[in-house]
Write a structure and sequence with these properties.
UDP-N-acetylmuramoyl-L-alanine:D-glutamate ligase; alpha/beta; 2 domains; 21 strands; 475 residues; 36% helix; 9-stranded mixed beta sheet
């Protein structure tokens, strides 16, 4: 487990609710049907994945936690496909098979990533006797750390009070993704997570944040909830507890598709709570995870590595002094965005105009510039016992303040070869009269398809000359 997150791999979450199968048929449209004025899709690709409570479960296993999903399916091919997909992904399926009713299936026909039509195959399970399903869920409670009620209005959660009360008696958090105009059936759950539209359908229109909080507190008290989390699209989320209100801005850089974002929120909340995280911290993690999935096309999940990367980005920003581990995570993110990474290195003991112009020239070779700086001991070995004049922390801070420099990192060795080979820049820059084949780390860069460039320093500019002039003037 990555140490940037709680021990998610020890968490066990039960997902109880409406499961469904999402199918996608896609292909080009080259003509209009002669039978009716509709496009003809030449289907060339098929994809299917779990939706509803099934997608919540997928989000949980993506966080490397354990999960069981409890729901209703038909005795049909779609139900078997749903079971196989989830089982192959590591989800334990505890489905109740209902004879004579179809597994809820949504078929989407697409062309060029645009949905042309959706076809639903469902009759709902509202008339099904649910005692067996509730018993399946209760059987899982002794070994779970949190439970998600995933309600899509299909009938599985028509009567969920027994499960809520059983979980409450065991002090197991219950997180509800609600549906409909009546939230009374979720009474005494730990947390419900309506989006803004769902919230206003229940409490009425809200003109500002103050009214959202006031009506949210009233609803929370009426339903005897521990908290209420309202997801507010581009405005982020609002967590309303009895004595505290927390507004978190959206973490999304770009929004491609909001499909399944609510599933990601409840999955991350439940997993974090099951791992022993406080509710405010779990909400922060859920908000970050939602920002990841809305930047992807279609129903998606957020992985542990993606969540760690975003947390590091939030902690360290887009520039500054970093340790090696954090820099690797940032580079992975920047490469995925198509950015070209440039790297150089040096002692940079007394920063002067020659250094500044050199670093500006280096930055021109790409989008991001990394400067690797020799440690104090390394400088001493290279320059003599009287150097460096400035300690490592001071040298790195000055470099980080330059407009041309994005990240500054240190290395302990005499040469930066190991660090360069690990970071794998697209362009390695070295200042001076070097031959390309003699530059430390150059072979690693060129082997990966990168470029090694020599940039000449300005004449008459050097740290040694500056030090000598200072010593001469003081003697």
């Amino acid at each position: 487990m990555n140490n940037c997150l709680p021990q998610f791999n020890s968490a066990r979450v039960v997902v109880f609710g409406d499961v469904m199968l999402d199918r996608y048929w896609s292909g080009p449209v080259n003509r209009i049907s002669p039978e009716a004025p509709v496009p003809v899709v030449h289907v060339t690709e098929h994809e299917e994945r779990p939706g509803g409570a099934g997608n919540v479960a997928l989000n949980i296993v993506a966080l490397e936690a354990q999960t069981t999903v409890v729901g209703l399916v038909g005795d049909d091919e779609a139900g078997r496909a749903l079971d196989k997909y989830l089982s192959d992904a590591g989800v334990n399926c505890a489905f109740q098979v209902v004879e004579g009713q179809p597994t809820i299936t949504k078929l989407r026909i697409l062309s060029r990533h645009q949905q042309l039509i959706r076809v639903d195959f469902e009759e709902g399970f509202h008339d099904v006797f649910l005692s067996d399903l509730t018993a399946r869920c209760q059987d899982q409670l002794p070994v779970c750390g949190a439970i998600v009620l995933s309600d899509y209005g299909k009938g599985s959660l028509s009567d969920c009070q027994q499960v809520i009360q059983q979980a409450r008696s065991r002090q197991i958090p219950v997180i509800v993704d609600p549906k409909g105009h009546d939230f009374e059936k979720y009474r005494q759950a730990t947390l419900i997570t309506p989006n803004m539209t769902e919230f206003e359908q229940v409490v009425g229109a809200c003109q500002d944040d103050a009214e959202i909080v006031r009506k949210g507190q009233t609803l929370r008290a009426q339903l005897d909830l521990t908290a209420l989390l309202i997801t507010r699209s581009e405005k982020g989320v609002t967590l309303i507890e009895e004595n505290r209100v927390t507004h978190l801005p959206t973490q999304a850089q770009e929004v491609f598709d909001v499909t399944g974002a609510g599933d990601t929120v409840v999955a991350t909340l439940a997993t974090a709570l099951a791992a022993g995280v406080s509710l405010p911290e779990a909400t922060k993690l859920a908000n970050v995870a939602a920002g990841i999935v809305v930047g992807k096309l279609g129903t998606a999940t957020a992985s542990v590595s993606e969540l760690c990367r975003e947390l590091h980005l939030e902690k360290h920003g887009s520039s500054g002094v970093l340790n090696e581990h954090d820099l690797v995570l940032l580079l992975n993110d920047r490469r995925e965005r198509g950015e070209r990474i440039v790297m150089t290195n040096g002692c940079f003991d007394l920063l002067h105009a020659g250094h500044v112009s050199y670093l500006q020239a280096a930055k021109a070779y790409g989008d991001r510039l990394i400067v690797a700086v020799n440690s104090d001991e390394s400088v001493k070995q290279l320059k003599g016992a009287e150097r460096p004049v400035n300690r490592l922390e001071q040298r790195m801070a000055v470099l980080a303040g330059l407009e041309s420099v994005d990240w500054v990192v240190s290395f302990e060795e005499d040469t930066p070869e190991r660090l360069i080979c690990r970071l794998q820049p697209d362009v390695l820059i070295k200042g001076g009269d070097y031959r390309v084949e003699d530059i430390a780390g150059g072979a690693c860069v060129t082997k990966q398809g990168g470029e090694v460039v020599v940039v000449h320093y300005q004449d008459g500019q050097s740290t040694t000359k500056i030090i000598n002039r200072i010593m001469e003037s003081s003697s």
